[in-house]
Specification:
This protein is an alpha+beta fold. The chain contains six helices and twelve strands. It has a six-stranded mixed β-sheet with strand order 1-8-7-4-5-6. Strands 2-3 form a two-stranded antiparallel sheet.
C-alpha cells in the first residue's frame, strides 16, 4: 500500500528536542491542573444528593423486568438511554448512541466495583434487541418503550443515568447528556492525544489540519462501528476525512 504524501501545511513546526521538551512541559503543567480540576469535580459529584425512583420496569427477553433486578445483585447501575428510529435498518439507527455504547466491551472493572452497566433503548424490545445482537453487544439490553415515564423523567434519550440500590429502594444519583456521554467513548480520549485530534469541525486546530467530511460518526452511510460486523462490506478511512 502506498502512503499518500503529507500536506506540508498540515504538520506542526519542527524544532530541536530541548525546545520541544520545554513546550511539552508547559502543556504538562496545564494537563496536571486539568486533572486536578477533574478530580475536584468528581469529588463534588460523589457528594450530590440523590432522588428516589418509583417502582418501574423495563422490558427484556423474558418480558418486563423491575429496575431493581437490572442491578443483577450489584449495588450500583449505569444505564445508557439509547435513541431509536422505529422500523429503520441498522445503518439508519442513531450513530451518536452507537459510538457511545459500542466502546464499553470489558465490564470486569465495573463489576469489580459493584457496578452493572445496561442499555435502556427507546425502541421496542424485539426490534432493538436484533440491533444489539447485530452489533455483538454482550451487556444487558432492555427496552424502555413501555416503561413508566418516571424512568425517563422528561428527558430526551441519549443520556447516561446512574443509580444506587439501598435494599429495595432505587435512587438516581447522577445523569448527563450531550458531551457528557463522552465518558464512554475511549476512542475520543485517545484521539485527543494525537496531533490531529478528533478531526471534528468544532475543534480549534491550526489551519489546514484534517477535518471529518460530514458526520463524525458515520462512514459511507453507516455508523463507523458497523463496518466490522459480519456481513457488512469493507470501508476505507479515506472516504471519511479530508485535509
Amino acid at each position: 500500500m502506498t502512503t499518500p504524501p503529507i500536506d506540508r501545511a498540515a504538520v506542526p513546526p519542527v524544532v530541536d528536542r530541548d525546545t520541544w521538551l520545554r513546550a511539552r512541559d508547559e502543556l504538562l503543567a496545564r494537563e496536571k491542573a486539568h486533572t486536578r480540576e477533574g478530580d475536584a469535580i468528581a469529588a463534588a459529584r460523589r457528594r450530590l444528593p440523590m432522588t428516589p425512583v418509583p417502582p418501574v420496569s423495563v422490558r427484556g427477553p423474558a418480558g418486563d423486568v423491575p429496575l431493581l433486578e437490572v442491578f443483577e445483585g450489584r449495588r450500583m447501575l449505569i444505564a445508557y438511554f439509547h435513541m431509536w428510529h422505529d422500523g429503520r435498518p441498522h445503518e439508519e439507527q442513531c450513530p451518536g448512541c452507537t459510538v457511545a455504547t459500542c466502546h464499553l466491551r470489558t465490564l470486569d472493572y465495573l463489576h469489580a466495583r459493584d457496578v452493572t452497566y445496561a442499555v435502556f433503548c427507546q425502541g421496542p424490545y424485539p426490534e432493538s434487541a436484533a440491533f444489539a445482537e447485530f452489533m455483538g453487544y454482550e451487556f444487558p439490553w432492555y427496552s424502555a418503550r413501555e416503561s413508566d415515564p418516571a424512568l425517563v423523567a422528561g428527558r430526551d434519550f441519549g443520556f447516561i443515568a446512574c443509580y444506587l440500590r439501598d435494599g429495595d429502594q432505587v435512587y438516581e444519583t447522577y445523569w448527563t447528556t450531550d458531551r457528557g456521554v463522552e465518558a464512554l467513548i475511549t476512542s475520543y480520549h485517545a484521539l485527543d492525544l494525537t496531533v490531529y485530534g478528533r478531526q471534528e469541525k468544532f475543534e480549534d486546530s491550526p489551519e489546514g489540519w484534517p477535518k471529518v467530511d460530514g458526520s463524525p460518526w458515520r462512514l459511507d452511510g453507516r455508523p463507523i462501528a458497523q463496518w466490522s460486523r459480519p456481513g457488512v462490506g469493507p470501508a476505507t478511512a479515506s472516504s471519511c476525512c479530508s485535509a
